Amino acid sequence: MVAIGTTRLRLAGYASLFGSTGTLVCCALPSLLVLLGLGATVASVVSGVPFLAALSRRKNLVFGLVGLLMAANAWYLFAVAPRLLVRGASCPPDQADSCARAARTSRALFAVSAALYGTGLFVAFLLGPLLQVLDR
Question: What is the DSSP letter of 136?
Fold first, then answer.
């Protein structure tokens, strides 16, 4: 039972990182590259990896689902896991160092995920409309 709690904590962190990186790659990074004048690079990447275009067309759904997953991960990481640790349900006393290291790793992965997701949100939803307003 102990290993399951630690494994779930790690998997939630990695899932959050994977999801936020996916939103950055599908939607935000191409927008940023076009903004920097690298449209030909984006065109060649999209021709080589065509599913990125399909994801970009559904960026509202992608960002919404990843946002829900990250919110669930944050709830687990900052609300559920500490309560389990206090009750002694998630970590045996002889492995306290391992559990502390896993918790730090999960918090670090979540912080990286949140930064990537925030960057993706900014570029995909705020920067484009802002530049359109400024261009008028």
Answer: -
